[in-house]
Specification:
By secondary structure, the protein is α+β, with helices and mostly antiparallel strands. The protein has 8 helices and 10 strands. Helix 1 crosses helix 2. The protein is globular.
């Protein structure tokens, strides 16, 4: 029961930053990946940023390995181990010993969906998300993104209030840099459930499952796209799935950017750390 891609979209958040998102589908699997790295970290891989490298590498390897894969966790672990080996080899080649510090490593959020007989199952690390619509029109949300989004927005609101700045100038402030490094170090110390170079993280992934009978649609999204639901409240999950299937993802992307650039560019209505984040989604369909 392979997934069929109905639509996909990946919008960069800013012309000044590389797009560190990707999505894809192959065989019975589909995925969305959202890369991240400590701001100001100089890249050592062959990409505009090491986060962009990780995402592109993982996207390529998922596409190559997924058609023969049978287990989601093993698939993810294989890609993690390949990425880890490639990155650490480059650290050794370049003599950049400071890049052995784990808080400087690229990381990502990942949701991987697996179409199985009678069900779709998801494996999620961090704040990417899966929305599912069954044959009867019922909708489901799989992943921890809603709770993580609320916590992040509250944190952004506090930092905006303390600095008295808007989003773009806040991101250039020493306070933001110090806060970002503190949070990155805390993530590493807590053995984070994030996709990247940590094989142990796979065991910490959030698992989800929805029983299905008939044709169903699955929308995988990074948090930059799911903000339409989880932060801006512009549409609920049922409306999102309906519009994705009828209007297409580009129309939803236009609405997303209108909110961020025209309605609330400073982040006062919807506190966040970027005016516009990379926004990526893929809509797939399968018969169960």
């Amino acid at each position: 029961m392979p997934f069929v891609v109905r639509d996909s979209l990946s919008l960069p958040g800013s012309p000044e930053r590389p797009n560190e998102d990707a999505c894809g589908a192959a065989g019975d699997f589909a995925w969305a990946i959202d890369g991240a790295i400590l701001p100001g970290t100089e890249p050592i891989m062959d990409a505009p940023s090491d986060a962009a490298w990780l995402v592109a590498f993982a996207n390529e390897r998922f596409a190559a390995l997924a058609p023969r894969a049978r287990d989601a966790a093993r698939l993810v672990l294989s890609v993690v181990e390949e990425a880890r080996a490639r990155f650490l080899a480059r650290v050794e080649e370049t003599g950049r010993a400071e890049r052995m510090e784990r808080h400087t490593w690229p990381a990502a959020a990942l949701t991987l969906a697996h179409a199985r007989p009678g069900a779709v199952e998801t494996l999620t690390l961090a704040d990417t998300i899966a929305y599912v619509r069954d044959a009867g029109g019922g909708v489901y949300t799989l992943g921890e993104a809603p709770g993580l989004r609320r916590a992040e927005s509250a944190h952004a609101e506090r930092l905006l209030r303390e600095t008295g700045l808007d989003i773009e100038t806040m991101r250039k402030s020493p306070a933001y840099r110090a806060d970002a490094e503190r949070r990155k170090r805390a993530q590493v110390a807590a053995a984070p459930a994030i996709f990247g170079l940590h094989p142990d993280a796979v065991a910490l992934a959030e698992r989800g499952s929805v029983r299905l009978d008939g044709t169903a649609q699955v929308l995988l999204a990074t948090d930059g796209f799911s903000a339409l639901v989880e932060l801006y409240g512009a549409v609920d999950v049922a409306g999102l799935m309906q519009r994705a299937c009828t209007e297409g993802l580009a129309a939803l992307g236009e609405q997303l950017r209108t909110i961020e650039t025209e309605i609330d560019p400073a982040g006062r209505l919807y506190p966040r750390f970027k005016r516009s984040d990379d926004a990526t989604a893929i809509l797939v369909e399968a018969s169960f």
